[in-house]
Amino acid sequence: VHMNGTLIYEIVMEAGFGRLKEELKKLNLEERKICIVTDSNVASLYLEEVESIVSSCCRKAEHFIFPAGEENKNLDTVKNLYEALILKQFDRQDYLLALGGGVVGDLCGYGAATYLRGISFIQVPTTLLSQVDSSIGGKTGVDFDSYKNMVGAFHMPKLVYTNIASLKTLSEEQFSSGMGEIIKHGLIKDEPYYRWLMEHATEIQNRDFTVLSQLVLVSNQIKREVVEKDPTEQGERALLNLGHTLGHAIEKLSDFRLMHGHCVGLGCIAAMAISINRGMIQPEELSRLLSVMEAFGMPVTVSGLSPENIVLTTRSDKKMDSGTVRFILLEQIGKACVNKTVTEAEMTEGLRHILA
Ligand code: NAD
Ligand code: ZN
């Protein structure tokens, strides 16, 4: 499936790497070097296959492997990448290719954005989260000290090649974390999609390729539409932050032991509870959300955290955004809005629904 909107690059979705060669050929890479950037887990699963395809399309294929894990999405790893690229004599015309999840995509994209003031890169996302979310929209970056995504750049890939067959090796936990962002897509933009997710929970959980390809396609479209309307996050794009204000705080307080998508899901429950308390949506929506999340094996409660601490932690996000929290609420299922008046007391009350 090809999707070609106003974003200048192409997104290709396939079950397998069978079309990667053809897509790379379109970029005329015969004279270029390509460095595949990947992490230790993905390297052992997919590097050999991808590297052999890449090397048949360019002058020379290289690779850079770093240890898997969010804790390595930092400037030290970027420095190692720069050193490897200098050693391999990469120049302005050469390419990077991110093979992996969001950690690889963010880090590789940031390396591509900054090496020699910017070189081209390709995304080959291999996790559910990266296929529906992080590979789209051009945000790249790394963490700095305890601050997530503190250093980064907007840099668009030349091609996104999504192989949904790579999802079959993903752990249950990683898969359900990706579902957090997907449920969020339904909540903010698309009520029929939200219902469809519920109705197809079994097939999705079984990773049925036909159903998965529809899911990745729709979620891709939702993310693309939002990003295309607002590439630099002035307004519309903020809607993608549903569940993220409180979700990020929970993620941080768990020392990143809880997964991003799971924290987003918890944040969505709290945001929905606040919306219900304001009379914006029907109270029965809450139990509907809980049952969708449970169907996908997502946690609906978190223990060991106090609401006061979570709310305090959201203040560091606030400082970064000129003193206001742009909180995302739901006007109805499929329609979200930015609200700057949500109080800390409302957040505390909303969090009551998820604290065990
Ligand atoms: P990840 O990249 O760490 O991948 C999760 C784990 O799965 C890793 O251990 C990885 O090695 C492994 N893995 C990857 N593909 C696999 C496969 N096919 N089979 C088996 N194992 C596989 O994490 P993620 O959830 O993909 O991404 C999270 C990151 O994405 C965070 O750093 C977050 O900040 C970032 N993110 C960025 C954006 C953006 O717009 N740039 C959006 C959302 C999230
Ligand atoms: Zn997210």
TrEMBL record:
GO MF, one example: metal ion binding
InterPro entries xref list: Dehydroquinate_synthase, DHQ_synth_AroB, DHQ_synth_fam, DHQS/DOIS_N, DHQS_C
Keywords from the UniProt entry: Amino-acid biosynthesis, Aromatic amino acid biosynthesis, Cobalt, Cytoplasm, Lyase, Metal-binding, NAD, Nucleotide-binding, Zinc
Binding site for Zn(2+): E181, H244, H260
Residue ranges occupied by any 3-dehydroquinate synthase C-terminal domain in the UniProt entry: 178-319
Catalytic activity, reaction form: 7-phospho-2-dehydro-3-deoxy-D-arabino-heptonate = 3-dehydroquinate + phosphate
Family: Belongs to the sugar phosphate cyclases superfamily. Dehydroquinate synthase family.
Alphabetized HAMAP family for the sequence: DHQ_synthase
Protein's name in the database: 3-dehydroquinate synthase
Name of the gene: aroB
